[in-house]
Each structure stands twice: as C-alpha cells, then as structure tokens.
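Appendix B. Raw example, untouched.
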Amino acid sequence: MQRKVRNKLWISAASGVLIVAAGLSGCSMFSTSNVPVDCDVVKQQVKAGQTDAQIASNLSAPVDQVAACHGPETDTNKTTTIPEKGY
C-alpha cells in the first residue's frame, strides 16, 4: 500500500515540475525584448519633439534600436521596373 502511495506522489511531483518548467519556458515567448521597434511610431514621436531616450523609455526598447530608425529611408518602389508601352 505504501508503495502505491509513494509511486503516486512521485508521479504527481514529476508532473507538477514538468508543468511548471513548461510554463516558465513559455513565458519567454511573450517577452518584448526581441520585438522590433516600429519606426513609424518613432518618427511620429521625433516629430513631437521627443529624444531617443524618451522614445526608448516609452516603447520599453533599447536606445540603439530607436536610433536605428533614423537611418536612410528605403523605398521598394524606387527599384520597381515599369514595363514599356505596348508590353
């Protein structure tokens, strides 16, 4: 009888540890530390007169990611080939 109870306790403890470990590892999926910064939001806040440090604080992002939004703008339409007439 004691053996059955001991086995059930061991299985319950192992299951609990497994559930807790899976829950903790799943929390990293929802971390905002790896989310890219929306440069449109940064540009709007720069127009409003905020500094990179203030914007980074507002977005909970590193200052270097916010500063990267100030780079040269890229437009994919500049490289688009337009077919000639009669194509």
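End of appendix B.
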